[in-house]
Design goal:
Blueprint: E1 2-7, E2 10-15, H1 22-29, E3 48-51, E4 54-57, E5 70-72, H2 85-92, H3 102-115, H4 121-128, H5 139-148
Parallel strand pairs: 1-5
Antiparallel strand pairs: 1-2, 3-4, 3-5
Helix pairs in contact: 2-5
Length: 161
């Protein structure tokens, strides 16, 4: 099946089998290997990407479901060699070790901070509760997201994301 969507602001069109997951399409068809596949059951969060503004598990979504959608992967966060403020905050707070869960953590946090730039610690913990990390613990990750809030524009009252 042919599906066309935007990935990181660029239009793509790919021929895929109807059963191909978005994660596999991103990695194998489009060469965007920042999206990691862990459990393949939507439990670990390593494959999290943003589709039309919502954090989703790309291992549970079919590539054909993104037809006409906007997809953001971890590769969209930085420009060239410069880290995004969120990535830089993760680095400062030692919020990664092996790095396997990091792309999913970053994309979940990014989606949260776009929608809720003033998210408090409790809300950040809740949003990240579906992302599993076996190396770092979560203190550095939470501290990194709290610090990165300053880089996200605040919304006026009554405006929706």
């Amino acid at each position: 099946m042919r599906t066309a969507f935007n990935v990181n602001g660029k239009p793509v069109s790919v021929d895929v089998e109807a059963r191909l997951t978005l994660a596999d399409c991103l990695r194998h068809n489009l060469g965007l290997t920042g999206t990691h596949v862990g459990c393949e059951h939507g439990v670990c969060g390593a494959c999290t990407v943003i589709v039309d503004g919502q954090a989703v598990r790309s291992c549970l979504m079919l590539a054909v479901q993104t037809d006409g959608a906007d997809v953001q992967t971890v590769e969209s966060l930085s420009t060239g060699d410069a880290l995004s403020p969120l990535q830089a905050s993760f680095r400062r707070h030692h919020a990664l070790q092996c790095g396997f869960c990091t792309p999913g953590m970053l994309m979940t946090a990014h989606a949260l901070l776009i929608a809720e730039p003033d998210a408090d610690e409790e809300r950040i913990r809740e949003a990240l509760s579906g992302n599993l990390c076996r190396c770092t613990g979560y203190i550095g990750i939470i501290e990194a997201v709290l610090e990165a809030r300053a880089a996200y524009p605040k919304r006026g009252k009554g405006r929706t994301p």
